[in-house]
């Protein structure tokens, strides 16, 4: 089948992405930080950056970068402790705005979500105008800016939301999808990370146009199961629906320590605290699971995980702790430890299936 023969869906999806959310909240609440390069999380000596302001990003500071490197890139960088309760509070206010327009809201995190506005509560046939109104409402009610992408499916909408950041939006109409993707640098495709992009460069794939020229067999042969994903998305095909209730696949709690841990006894003490915190989260959402995973990050930043699957669902602190401790003593840590975490997966949740209604409207 030729690319032009693939059917194009008529759903109208908006992807809203807050601009440098954590950092912007800190600058909003503390005027002295406005216009300055700040990093939320991490420090000059340890930890990793959770978010960076746009002023810091100009120096190459990004999330997941170590605090040491971030300070090296930007000597004037200001580190700020994260306040997740505050971020969650504002996120809930933003989601309340979303639900005034549609019940089909799929949060991806505290700072971004998909909205299906094919049918919406405002009766507005223009997804572009709805996105403008939603972004205006967010700014008026929170003082924060958001960017948005509007298109026929979640993939294209997410790519488009990054197009005019910060505080902008991009609409990709149905008849523009193929041209939009064809001219897009491959590193801009959602789902293609740095390693995959490098491999594609070696294969002569630098843009969507070159990706689309490759056969399904070629992509599957070079990228395995992901090959078919790349084959379809570059043709604008992504049928995943906006799910108003995303079901968690795992629930996790972890802590980075101010000083590296060298004693397994101290590690076990920390695991007990982490297990208690994880229990509170599980109880709050009435979730239990069977697979316990222990996460260990060493002082050299290497990561190790150890898992055990039980024959029954658990959610209480004692069983979480006992299992995590068993995994800890399973093998002696190879170095001092900077982070420990416990996650629970194989949960007792069932995904609710929804039926997508597709109608033709003007974008």
CATH topology of the largest domain: Alpha-Beta Plaits
How would you sum up the major sheet?
A: 5 strands, mixed
What is the domain tally? Answer: 3
C-alpha-based Rg, rounded:
22 Å
- Ranges where pLDDT stays below 50 over 5 or more residues in a row are 1-8, 350-362
Helix content: 25-40%
Distance between the termini: 27 Å
Q: How would you describe this structure to a colleague?
A:
There is one protein chain. By secondary structure, the chain is of the alpha+beta class. The chain has 3 domains: 182 residues, 2-Layer Sandwich (Alpha-Beta Plaits); 63 residues, 3-Layer(aba) Sandwich (MutS, DNA mismatch repair protein, domain I), CATH 3.40.1170.60; 98 residues, Dna Ligase, domain 1, CATH 3.30.1490.100. The chain contains 13 helices and 12 strands. Helix 6 links the parallel strand 7 and strand 8. Helix 10 crosses helix 11 and helix 12 runs antiparallel to helix 13. The protein is globular.
What's the structural blueprint in terms of helices and strands?
Layout: E1 13-18, H1 21-29, E2 38-40, E3 51-52, H2 54-57, H3 67-73, E4 78-80, H4 84-98, E5 105-109, E6 112-116, H5 127-142, E7 146-151, H6 154-161, E8 169-171, H7 177-182, H8 194-202, H9 208-212, H10 216-223, H11 226-233, E9 250-261, H12 264-285, E10 289-298, E11 303-314, H13 317-328, E12 337-347
Parallel strand pairs: 2-4, 7-8
Antiparallel strand pairs: 1-6, 1-7, 2-3, 5-6, 9-12, 10-11, 10-12
Helix pairs in contact: 4-5, 10-11, 12-13
Organism: Flavobacterium agri
Family: Belongs to the DNA polymerase type-Y family.
Protein name: DNA polymerase IV
């Amino acid at each position: 089948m030729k690319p032009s023969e693939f059917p194009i869906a008529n759903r109208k999806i908006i992807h809203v992405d807050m601009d440098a959310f954590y950092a912007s909240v800190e600058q909003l609440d503390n005027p002295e930080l406005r216009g300055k390069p700040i990093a939320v999380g991490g420090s000059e000596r340890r930890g990793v950056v959770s978010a960076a302001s746009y002023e810091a990003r100009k120096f190459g500071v990004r999330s997941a970068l170590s605090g040491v490197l971030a300070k090296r890139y930007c000597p004037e960088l200001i580190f700020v402790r994260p306040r997740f309760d505050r971020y969650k509070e504002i996120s809930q206010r933003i989601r309340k705005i979303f639900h005034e327009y549609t019940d089909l809201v799929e949060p991806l995190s505290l700072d971004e979500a998909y909205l299906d506005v094919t049918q919406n509560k405002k009766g507005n046939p223009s997804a572009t105008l709805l996105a403008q109104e939603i972004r205006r409402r967010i700014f008026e009610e929170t003082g924060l800016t958001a960017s948005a992408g509007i298109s026929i499916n979640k993939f294209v909408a997410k790519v488009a939301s990054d197009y005019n950041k910060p505080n902008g939006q991009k609409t990709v109409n149905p008849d523009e999808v193929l041209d939009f993707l064809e001219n897009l640098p491959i590193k801009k495709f959602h789902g293609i990370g740095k390693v995959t992009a490098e491999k594609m460069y070696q294969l002569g794939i630098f843009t969507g146009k070159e990706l689309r020229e490759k056969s399904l067999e070629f992509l599957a042969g070079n990228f395995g199961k992901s090959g078919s994903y790349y084959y379809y998305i570059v043709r604008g095909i992504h049928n995943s629906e906006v799910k108003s209730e995303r079901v968690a696949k795992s629930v996790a709690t972890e802590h980075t320590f101010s000083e590296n841990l060298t004693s397994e006894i101290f590690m076990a003490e920390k695991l007990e605290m982490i297990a208690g915190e994880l229990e509170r989260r599980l109880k709050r959402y009435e979730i239990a699971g069977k697979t316990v995973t222990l996460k260990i990050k060493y002082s050299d930043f290497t990561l190790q995980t150890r898992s055990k699957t039980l024959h029954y669902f658990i959610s209480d602190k004692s069983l979480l702790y006992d299992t995590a401790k068993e995994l800890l003593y399973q093998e002696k840590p190879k170095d001092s430890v900077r982070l420990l975490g416990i996650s629970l997966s194989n949960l007792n949740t069932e995904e609710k299936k929804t039926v997508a209604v597709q109608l033709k409207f003007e974008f």
